[in-house]
C-alpha cells in the first residue's frame, strides 16, 4: 500500500494546472493496481472566512491507455489563484518488486516533502538518493511483528526521509535527462528471504547479465545465428582490402547503407535480424546487432555496448539495472585503438556516435566479461567561417563567403542540406531566408565524403545601404549568423552544463571600403577565459591600410561538460559573445 497526501497553494495562473490530477495504475498478467479512499478539497478565502469545496466522487474517471496501464483522473473543484488544494489517496499494488520511487523535488517549489517506508525484514533493498539536494532528516525505527503471511511473522523497518525548502527544478538548455538531477529516493530490491529459509535473488550481478545476454534469443543468439547475412559482400571486401581498419570501415558502410532506421530504440532485436535484413529497415537493436555480427564474421574484434540515451538518464553503476539501457552500439577494437559505431545514421563517419548516445558511459559485453566504456567523444562541434567583402559606391557588398564544417557541425549541416531535393534547392532556400543577399555562384564539397570536412563557398552580392551619401554607415560583421540571446538565464544552476562535445568556432570577417570613406569606430576587443582553461572567447578588430577592416572571433569550449560551479563564469562568457555580436563597425564619409 502507498498513501499519498499533498497540500498546495496556487500562487499564479500557471499553477492552476496543479488541480488536474492523473495517477498511473499498472496492470500485467491479470494483476492490477487499485486506488482507495480518494479525497480532495479546495479551500478559498472569501468574505473573511474559508470556503471549502470537496471533490465530487462522481467526477473521478478512468482512462485506459494500453494493456499495461490506465490513468485515474480527477480535477479539484473551484480552483483559482489563491486557492489551497489538498488531496489524498491510497494505492494498492500486487507488484512488490516495483517499490515506489519518491521525488522530493519537482517543477514547483515545496516547503516540505516527507516519505515514510515500512519494509518487512524479509525484503532487502538498495536505497539510493539521487540529485544535488541532501536530506534534512533521516530516521529509522524497528516495528515488531508488523508483517504476517502464511503463518510467518517478521519485524519491519520504519524508515523516514525528509527535505525542507526545496526549490523548483528548472530545466535549461544543454542538459541531459532531468531525472539525473532531480532529488529522488530510489529503491532496488536485492533479494527476498522466505520463511522456509530459501532466498530469491532479484538484483543480478554483471556476471549474471553477461551470461544471460550471451544466450538471449533476441541478443547474443541473434548475433551468432545471423552473422553471415553479409557474407558475400564481406568476401568481396576481403578480396580487395588488406588492412583491418579498411575492412572494418567497409563492413560498417555495408551495414549502414543497407538499412533505414525506423526510429525505434532498444537493445534487443525487435523484428529479428533476418527479417530486418530482408525488409532493409529495423530498430536500433536490429541494425546494430547486425553490424556487430557482420564485423565479427569479418574477423574484426567487436563487442556490443549497452547505452542509455541522453533523454533516458544515466545508467546505475553500483549494480546492474537492465531497464536503464535502451540502446546498443558496437565497439571495434583494432590494436591499441577502439571505435564506437552506430549504423542507424548514414551520415555518421566511422567512430562518431549520434548526439543521443553521448551520455557518459556504456556497458560493453566483452569476450569474457562486462566493463564500462567512456562515451565522451573526441569529435567536436567545429566550424570556420571566412567572409571577404568589398563595399562599392552603390551601397552593395560583393565578395566571397567560405564555410568549413567538421565533426558534429558537419553532421548536422549535412542533414540540413539533405532536407532539400538538391543543392540548388538548398541554395535557393538560403536566398529566400536572406532577402538582401544574392548568391551568384556556389560550390559545396565533400557532402558525401563523411571523413572530410564539409565546405561551402559562395560568391555573393548583398544590398547593404540604399545610398552611400549618408554621413555615417553601420555594418555588423556577423552577416551570416550571430548569437542574439544568452541560453543561460538562471541565477544559479547546480547541475552541470552538458554540451555533449567540445566546441571550436572561428569567424574571420574582412571588409574593404571605398576611398571616399573611413573607419570611424571599431567594436572594442574582448577577451575572456573560463577557469582552468575550460573555454574562452576572443574578439579582435584591426584596420589595415586605412580602408580594410578585419574582425576575428574565436570561441572554444574545451570540455563536453562544465560543472555547475562554473555556471556564473560560463553565463558571463556567453553574455560577452551576445554583446560583441551586436556591436557595429561605424563608417563615415571623409
In short:
The chain is of the alpha+beta class and 590 residues long. An eight-stranded mixed β-sheet has the order 25-26-24-23-29-33-32-31. A five-stranded antiparallel β-sheet has the order 20-19-18-21-22. Strands 1-8-4-5 form a four-stranded antiparallel β-sheet, with no helix packed on it.
Q: With helices defined by DSSP (H or I, 4 residues minimum), what is the helix count?
A: 9
Main beta sheet strand tally, sense and closure: 8 strands, mixed
Shape: globular
First and last CA, distance = 84 Å
The radius of gyration computed from the alpha-carbon positions, rounded to a whole number of angstroms, is: 31 Å
Q: Structural class from helices and strands?
A: alpha+beta
**Low-confidence runs:** none
Beta strands, count: 35
Give the helix level as a range of percent: 10-25%
Instruction: Give the strand order, joined by hyphens, for the main sheet.
Output: 25-26-24-23-29-33-32-31
Mean pLDDT: 92
Beta percentage is 35-45%
Please tell me about this protein's structure.
The chain is of the alpha+beta class and 590 residues long. 17% of the residues lie in helices and 42% in strands. It is built from nine helices and 35 strands. The strands form nine sheets. The protein has an eight-stranded mixed beta sheet. A hairpin with a 4-residue loop joins strand 21 and strand 22. The longest helix has 16 residues, at 567-582. The protein is globular and about 100 Å long. It starts with a strand and ends with a strand. The model has no long low-confidence stretch (mean pLDDT 92).
Amino acid at each position: 500500500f502507498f498513501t499519498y497526501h499533498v497540500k498546495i497553494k496556487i500562487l499564479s495562473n500557471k499553477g492552476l494546472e496543479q488541480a488536474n490530477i492523473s495517477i498511473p495504475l499498472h496492470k500485467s498478467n491479470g494483476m492490477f493496481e487499485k486506488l482507495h479512499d480518494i479525497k480532495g478539497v479546495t479551500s478559498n478565502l472569501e468574505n473573511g472566512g474559508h470556503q471549502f469545496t470537496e471533490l465530487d466522487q462522481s467526477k473521478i474517471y478512468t482512462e485506459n491507455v494500453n494493456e499495461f496501464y490506465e490513468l485515474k483522473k480527477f480535477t479539484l473543484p473551484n480552483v483559482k489563484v489563491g486557492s489551497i488544494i489538498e488531496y489524498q489517496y491510497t494505492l494498492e499494488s500486487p507488484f512488490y518488486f516495483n517499490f515506489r520511487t519518491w521525488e522530493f523535488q519537482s517543477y514547483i517549489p515545496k516547503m516540505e516533502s516527507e516519505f515514510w517506508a515500512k519494509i518487512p525484514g524479509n525484503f532487502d533493498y538498495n536505497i539510493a538518493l539521487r540529485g544535488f539536494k541532501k536530506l534534512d532528516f533521516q530516521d529509522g525505527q524497528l516495528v515488531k511483528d508488523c508483517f504476517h503471511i502464511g503463518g510467518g511473522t517478521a519485524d519491519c523497518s520504519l524508515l523516514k526521509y525528509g527535505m525542507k525548502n526545496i526549490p523548483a527544478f528548472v530545466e535549461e538548455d544543454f542538459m541531459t535527462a532531468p531525472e539525473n538531477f532531480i532529488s529522488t529516493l530510489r529503491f532496488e530490491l536485492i533479494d527476498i528471504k522466505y520463511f522456509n529459509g530459501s532466498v530469491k535473488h532479484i538484483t543480478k550481478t554483471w556476471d549474471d547479465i553477461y551470461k544471460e545476454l550471451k544466450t538471449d534469443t533476441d541478443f547474443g543468439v541473434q548475433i551468432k545465428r545471423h552473422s553471415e547475412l553479409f557474407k558475400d559482400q564481406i568476401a568481396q571486401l576481403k578480396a580487395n582490402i588488406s588492412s583491418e581498419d579498411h575492412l572494418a570501415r567497409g563492413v560498417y558502410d555495408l551495414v549502414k547503407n543497407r538499412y533505414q532506421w525506423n526510429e525505434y530504440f532498444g537493445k534487443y532485436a525487435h523484428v529479428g535480424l533476418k527479417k530486418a535484413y530482408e525488409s532493409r529497415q529495423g530498430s536500433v537493436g536490429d541494425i546494430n546487432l547486425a553490424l556487430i555480427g557482420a564485423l565479427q564474421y569479418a574477423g574484426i574484434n567487436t563487442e556490443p555496448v549497452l547505452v542509455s540515451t541522453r533523454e533516458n538518464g544515466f545508467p546505475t553503476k553500483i549494480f546492474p539495472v537492465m531497464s536503464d539501457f535502451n540502446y546498443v552500439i558496437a565497439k571495434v577494437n583494432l590494436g591499441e585503438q577502439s571505435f564506437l559505431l552506430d549504423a542507424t545514421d548514414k551520415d555518421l563517419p566511422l567512430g562518431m556516435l549520434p548526439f543521443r548516445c553521448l551520455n557518459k558511459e556504456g556497458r560493453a559485453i566483452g569476450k569474457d566479461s562486462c566493463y564500462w566504456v567512456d562515451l565522451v567523444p573526441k569529435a567536436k562541434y567545429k566550424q570556420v567561417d571566412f567572409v571577404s567583402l568589398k563595399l562599392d559606391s552603390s551601397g552593395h557588398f560583393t565578395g566571397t563567403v567560405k564555410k568549413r564544417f567538421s565533426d558534429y557541425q558537419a553532421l548536422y549541416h549535412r542533414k540540413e542540406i539533405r532536407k532539400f531535393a538538391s543543392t540548388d534547392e538548398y541554395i535557393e532556400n538560403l536566398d529566400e531566408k536572406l532577402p538582401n543577399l544574392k548568391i551568384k555562384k556556389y560550390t559545396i564539397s565533400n557532402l558525401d565524403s563523411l571523413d572530410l570536412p564539409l565546405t561551402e563557398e559562395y560568391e555573393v552580392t548583398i544590398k547593404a545601404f540604399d545610398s552611400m551619401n549618408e554621413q555615417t554607415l553601420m555594418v555588423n560583421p556577423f552577416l551570416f549568423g550571430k548569437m542574439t540571446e544568452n541560453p543561460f538565464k538562471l541565477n544559479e544552476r547546480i547541475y552541470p552544463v552538458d554540451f555533449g562535445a567540445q566546441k571550436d568556432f572561428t569567424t574571420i570577417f574582412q571588409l574593404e571600403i571605398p576611398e571616399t570613406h573611413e573607419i570611424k569606430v571599431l567594436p572594442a576587443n574582448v577577451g575572456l577565459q573560463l577557469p582552468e582553461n575550460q573555454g574562452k572567447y576572443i574578439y579582435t578588430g584591426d584596420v589595415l591600410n586605412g580602408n580594410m577592416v578585419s574582425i576575428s572571433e574565436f570561441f572554444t569550449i574545451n570540455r563536453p561538460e562544465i560543472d555547475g560551479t562554473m555556471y556564473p563564469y560560463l553565463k558571463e562568457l556567453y553574455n560577452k559573445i551576445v554583446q560583441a555580436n551586436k556591436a557595429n563597425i561605424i563608417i563615415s564619409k571623409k
